TrEMBL record:
It catalyses: AMP + ATP = 2 ADP. HAMAP family: Adenylate_kinase_Adk. Residues 127-163 form the Adenylate kinase active site lid domain. Belongs to the adenylate kinase family. The gene is adk. The lineage of its organism: Bacteria, Bacillati, Actinomycetota, Actinomycetes, Kitasatosporales. It is an enzyme of class 2 (transferase). GO terms for cellular component: cytoplasm. Monomer. It comes from Streptomyces sporangiiformans. InterPro entries: Adenyl_kin_sub, Adenylat/UMP-CMP_kin, Adenylat_kinase_CS, Adenylate_kinase_lid-dom, P-loop_NTPase. This is Adenylate kinase. GO terms for biological process: AMP salvage. It is found in: Cytoplasm. Gene3D superfamilies: P-loop containing nucleotide triphosphate hydrolases (3.40.50.300). Its EC number is 2.7.4.3.
Length: 225
């Protein structure tokens, strides 16, 4: 299957993308990984992207599209892929459609992870990171440390990242609603959107997503029959 994963910050897209890609035996393609890989390998697109980033400018859509297209044409993506973090706006979605059409393929589904705004704020603003080891992550409500402000693993100080404050989270949500959320309507008009609740345990959400994607696939098969 060829899938685009969308949802607000804090919806658990990265976590779900990894599980879904494994269950579906397709590569998980994230924007962050694309940029890191191209820059580290010093590809022409990577050099171009780095020149914009070093100048403090946004990387143009056509560069991002080029990276995504190159990755989607790799052998391991022959039977499908899961795009995470891309497209981010309707312009990118339109460009992606054009690129896929040129390659003779099309998307099978757009999985929309739905989370109430209050839950998003709670999830992100409650997160605390260890200063000694950033892989040690706690949450004030869901996985609190035994001693407030102290890492259970190494005793390091726990802190809240600047981009995890409630004010920052609400600004990120505003950007999501303005720029990214419109792609849901764009894809809904094509009959591609599958919306599920992203509330609950990780495995519960994964199961819900797999079942929804299977139903979508079955419906498409019936329509083609």
């Amino acid at each position: 299957m060829r899938i685009v994963l969308v949802g607000p910050p804090g919806a658990g897209k990265g976590t779900q993308a990894a599980f879904l890609a494994k269950n579906l035996s397709i590569p998980h393609i994230s924007t962050g990984d694309l940029f890191r890989s191209n820059i580290n390998q010093k590809t022409e697109l990577g050099k171009l992207a780095k020149s914009y980033m070093d100048a403090g400018n946004l990387v143009p859509d056509e560069v991002t599209i080029g990276m995504a297209r190159d990755r989607m044409e790799q052998p391991d993506a022959a039977n499908g892929f899961l795009l995470d973090g891309f497209p981010r706006n309707v312009s990118q979605a339109e460009s992606l459609d054009q690129a896929l059409k040129a390659d003779g393929v099309e998307l099978d589904a757009v999985l929309d992870l739905e989370v109430p705004e209050g839950e998003v704020v709670k999830r992100i603003a409650g997160r605390r990171i260890c200063r000694k080891d950033s892989s040690h992550v706690f949450h004030e409500s869901y996985s609190p440390p035994k001693k407030k402000g102290v890492c259970d693993v190494c005793g390091g100080e726990l802190y809240q990242r600047d981009d995890d404050t409630e004010e920052t989270v609400r600004k990120r949500l505003e950007v999501y609603h303005t720029q990214t959320e419109p792609i849901i309507d764009y894809y809904r008009a094509q009959g591609l959107v599958v919306t599920i609740s992203a509330l609950g345990k990780v495995d519960e959400v994964t199961k819900r997503a797999m079942e929804a994607l299977q139903r979508k696939d079955d419906e498409d098969d019936r329509d083609d029959a």
